[in-house]
Each structure stands twice: as structure tokens, then as C-alpha cells.
Design brief:
Helix content: 25-40%
Number of strands: 15
Pfam families: OCD_Mu_crystall
Structural class: alpha/beta
GO cellular component, one term: cytoplasm
Radius of gyration: 19 Å
InterPro entries: NAD(P)-bd_dom_sf, ODC_Mu_crystall, ODC_N
CATH topology of the largest domain: Rossmann fold
Protein name: Cyclodeaminase
Shape: globular
Number of helices: 10
């Protein structure tokens, strides 16, 4: 059994084309029906403002599968500790023995989450998309932009955050990378000329409405990954010409389809893995509005953990 720490993992795994392909293949396997993926195991630790999620999946035919344990303790920054942590355990799919423990402290989750956003944009946004609006100014906002640039030639970024100073600070390194970055006080202004909108907040109430959407825009919603969170107003979902999610069940329990709890969803729901596996062209015209709700799946964790361990063993 091998043990790898975050620093070593980060040396061999980055947001790059190879990692994107690995995660995309995981989505394709899910869409083709060759994945065993149980529901997320989630536990709240309310007295510490914490939660723990456990995700796993097995891609049939693969030599390995992963189980990820991901704690989030959201008061930690007050005592100088990170909010998110965790590790991935990689098992042999032939014997069940532990091949490795990747003590990545959430690094691989950050990478695969960013890459999932890029994969959604690759398959749903217009190929000529050049301008992105990012709502939120945390680590995932940065990584979503980095991953998006693997699939779209982004030149202009519009950013909004609840704290203007946080958005100002976030913009500095992006400008240093040669991007034009505009900081906005209102979401409507940030989205006014966007080809792509990415929401990366922990909001528990909707922040994006249909009136903020231009014709032809693509929206990737990343922040809603638990029963308490929501970023999209119901009007965004009903206005969209195409609604895609990583899994319908998770979108209904943890994602944006919670808006229709107890009601019939009044539009077709397509899963991203199916789009990839079947080569579907769900965007029918340049004026279509597409929305993708990503809650994070166990197959993404197995895909990135297997990719990482393969890189580590070759290094």
C-alpha cells in the first residue's frame, strides 16, 4: 500500500489536457451505463458547522476504484485552518486490496471539479465563446477559469462577488496572465455581454435569474452541491433551451432541480455523460441558452484518482 501527500500529487497532476480527458472518459462511462455509482453518503456535524461527504464509483473493466472522504468544516478559517480537506483511497477492483491512499487534502476534488466545468462548456457552449462571467471569487472561480481556457479561447472576464474587495483581489493575478478583467457590483452587469456564465458560490438562495441571460449564453452552475444550496432562480431553468446535469438524482437532491421539489419538471433533463457518450449535439443553434448543473459525482473521483495514481507510479 502506497501513501502520497498533497505536494507530491500536485507535482504530477494539474489542470491540463490529459487530466481533462481522464475525467471526460469517466463521464462517458457513466453515460454509457458501465458505471456502478451509489448515492452520496453525507453526514452533518452541526455543532462544528461541518459536513462529511463520501463518494465512490466503479467503472466496469477498470483495474481500480476510489472512495473519497471529503470533510467541510466552514468555521475553520477563523482558527487558521482550511475549510475543506479529505483523502481518496484507491482499491484494486480485482482483489479489493488498498493500492494507495492519496492524502490530497481536497486537491484532486478541486482539479476534477474545475475540469468538469470545462467539459460542460466544451459540449454545451458556443465554440466562438470568448467572454466569461464568473460569479464568485474563491479558489474554484480561479480554477474554473483556468480549466475553461483548455476548451475555449477566453480573452475577457467579468467577475462579481458579494465583497467587491474580494473580486478586486481576485482580478489581479488574472490580469497578470494577460486577461482583460472587469469587476462588477451587480450580477446583471457582469452577465451583460457574457458568452459563458459560471456560478461558483456557496449561496443558499438564487443569485442568477433569467433576466440576466443573453441569447446564446451557456451557464455552468457549480456551487449547489448540498440540499441547502441554490444558485439559479427557477426562471433560469425554465428559460433554458437545454438543461443538462451530471446526474438527475443528485440534481434533484443536491442541485438546481430542487426548485421543482414535489412538482413535475416542465422540461427535458439530459445527463452530461449521455451527451458525451452518444455524441449528442444538444445545442441546436447559436441563440440557444444552455444550462449545466454539476453537483460532483463519484465517477469523477474514481477517474481523477486512478489518473493521479497512474502518474505517481510512473514518476
Amino acid at each position: 500500500m502506497q501513501l502520497f501527500q498533497r505536494d507530491r500529487i500536485a507535482e504530477v497532476v494539474a489542470i491540463d489536457e490529459a487530466a481533462l480527458e481522464a475525467v471526460e472518459q469517466g463521464f462517458a462511462a457513466l453515460g454509457s451505463g458501465t458505471v456502478v455509482q451509489p448515492p452520496i453518503l453525507s453526514m452533518a456535524i452541526e455543532e462544528s458547522n461541518g459536513e462529511v461527504d463520501v463518494k465512490t464509483a466503479h467503472i466496469r473493466g477498470n483495474e481500480r476504484f476510489a472512495i473519497k472522504v471529503s470533510p467541510g468544516f466552514f468555521d475553520n478559517p477563523k482558527i487558521g485552518l482550511p475549510s475543506l480537506n479529505g483523502l481518496m483511497m484507491v482499491f484494486s477492483a480485482k482483489t479489493g486490496l488498498v493500492d494507495a491512499v492519496l492524502f490530497d487534502e481536497g486537491y484532486l476534488t478541486m482539479v476534477r471539479t474545475a475540469l468538469a466545468g470545462a467539459i460542460a462548456a466544451k459540449h454545451l457552449s458556443r465554440k466562438d465563446s470568448r467572454r466569461v462571467a464568473i460569479l464568485g471569487a474563491g479558489e474554484q472561480a480561479t480554477k474554473q477559469l483556468e480549466a475553461l481556457q483548455l476548451v475555449r479561447d477566453i480573452g475577457v472576464v467579468d467577475v462579481w462577488a458579494r465583497r467587491h474587495d474580494a473580486a478586486d483581489t481576485w482580478a489581479i493575478p488574472q490580469r497578470a496572465r494577460g486577461l482583460e478583467v472587469n469587476v462588477h457590483d451587480r450580477i446583471s452587469d457582469a452577465c451583460r455581454q457574457a458568452d459563458i456564465i459560471i456560478t461558483t458560490t456557496p449561496s443558499q438562495t438564487p443569485i442568477l435569474a433569467a433576466e440576466d441571460l443573453l441569447e446564446g449564453v451557456h451557464v455552468t452552475a457549480m456551487g449547489s452541491d448540498s440540499p441547502e444550496k441554490r444558485e439559479l432562480d427557477e426562471s433560469v431553468l425554465t428559460r433554458a433551451d437545454v438543461f443538462v446535469c451530471d446526474t438527475r438524482a443528485q440534481s434533484e437532491s443536491n442541485g438546481e432541480l430542487k426548485a421543482f421539489a414535489g412538482r413535475t419538471v416542465p422540461f427535458e433533463v439530459v445527463e452530461l455523460g449521455s451527451v458525451i457518450a452518444n455524441g449528442q449535439q444538444v445545442r441546436r443553434s447559436a441563440t440557444d441558452i444552455t444550462v449545466c448543473d454539476l453537483t460532483g459525482t463519484g465517477v469523477q473521483d474514481t477517474a481523477i484518482a486512478s489518473f493521479a495514481l497512474g502518474r505517481l507510479e510512473k514518476a
